[in-house]
Amino acid sequence: MQAQQMLPIEEFGLAVGLRLPWRASKCTVNEVSKTIHLWITNQGLATAEQRRLWFAPKAARAPSKITSAEDKQWRHVDCMTYSCVVHTCDPLQPDDHELDWLGLPNSPFTKCLAKRIFQLLMEGVDMQVICEVLRIPFAELWKFKFDLDNGLLNFEYQPSVRRRAKFQSESQPPAAIQAAAPDAKAVETAILVPDVSDPVWEHLITGKLSIDIKTLSLQLLLTKLRQQVSQLQSADVKIMKLRELHRYVERHQRVLGHELAQLKPF
To answer: Is there a contact between 101 and 38 (Cβ–Cβ < 8 Å)?
Structure first.
């Protein structure tokens, strides 16, 4: 039986998504916490490789790069059943923070993981569920969402196929809803909540539409969302706030009859 060989550290880095000139320089595994710590660098090869260039002309010698003393780290996407934390001691340029395997200076997540979290938030996944699925601390996710709410982060939202299909089904005309749900009371409730794409939600969240609100929780949520939207520069984050308001109304529509009666689809 032929023995299997371990991947060299550089090839392991490529396997988890690194692209040249970045490479993995060190890797440790904590079996207790099921965590992989991966150190990466954009320097040249190790000293053993550089020795081959000692007798080469000076112009052919690889220039050495100085690393910083600070060990910067970000949580990356999982590797199999292990959490993955990326480290680097290299001095970084502003463009480096846009790489998928690195993150912003004040962010706990790499760009790749941050985009996945943003996608889940836009799809309406509960924050506690995101923490459990991705195995990330709630405090770090809360800070991430806080930065989103205040326009400090910007991502492009791409609705999933399942979500697009759901929106299409939600935008069926009343006749189609009647055929799918013969119960008159259920049809009336479904029609009362406008589709998430209806302009009524934007008019409501931007203050263009004012309604009489008797439910305190809705009043508090709408006040918070209006304040956040007024400070946002990202259209995608604004959409996320609209979806948050729409999900709240959908979940509590039984006690929001007074408010829903005032929401007329545009």
So the answer is: no
CA distance 73 to 37: 9
Q: Under DSSP, is residue 26 helix (H, G, I), strand (E, B) or coil?
A: strand
**Is the pLDDT score of 238 beyond 50?**
yes
**In this predicted structure, what is the pLDDT of residue 72?**
92
Distance (Å, whole) CA 72 – CA 75: 11
Tell if the pTM clears 0.85, that is, is over it. Answer: no
147 in a structural domain: no
Nearby residues of 132 by Cβ (< 8 Å), 6 or more positions away: none
Instruction: Specify the length of the chain in residues.
Output: 266
In the chain, how many domains are there? 1
Task: Determine the pLDDT at residue 265.
Answer: 65
Euclidean distance between CA atoms 215 and 230, whole angstroms: 23
Residue 236 falls inside a structural domain: no
pLDDT band at residue 156 under the 50/70/90 scheme: low
